[in-house]
Amino acid sequence: MDHPLFDLIEQRIRQAEEAGEFDSLEGAGKPLPRCDDPANAVFGRLVKESGAVPEFVALSRELAKLREELRETGDRTKRSEILKVMSMMEARIDLAKKAGR
What pTM value is reported for the model? Predict the structure, then answer.
């Protein structure tokens, strides 16, 4: 059974073809890129184009900032607090990597 909008979609595609809207698309004539996960391909592309990064990458960046702060801090109490936060951050990174996030 066809989708109720199938005819409308086909009509719009034909109109675009006739108007030449597909004539100079980027990548025309080239093979499509290999896709290992077609079910999530569009989502993955959108995430990549938006600049999003996996959770463990974002956490790793935060950890790097904490390490820099630790190097610049001489206060023992502050250093102790930073080390505790770093320890928790490292655990979160490990969990995110295992979860594939």
Answer: 0.51
pLDDT for 101 beyond 90 = no
Distant-in-sequence, close-in-space partners of 92: CB < 8 Å, separation ≥ 6: 59
Half-sphere exposure of residue 48: CA atoms within 13 angstroms, side-chain side: 6
Q: What is the pLDDT of residues 7-26, one digit of tens each?
A: 899 999 999 999 999 888 88
Report DSSP letters for 29-98, one per residue. Answer: TSPPPP-S-GGGHHHHHHHHHTT---HHHHHHHHHHHHHHHHHH---HHHHHHHHHHHHHHHHHHHHHHH
Give burial (CB, 10 Å; 0-12/13-18/19+) of 34.
Answer: exposed
Contact of 92 with 54, CB cutoff 8 Å: no
- Please answer whether residues 28 and 47 qualify as being in contact, where contact means their C-beta atoms are separated by less than 8 angstroms: no
Q: Are 59 and 89 in contact (CB under 8 A)?
A: yes
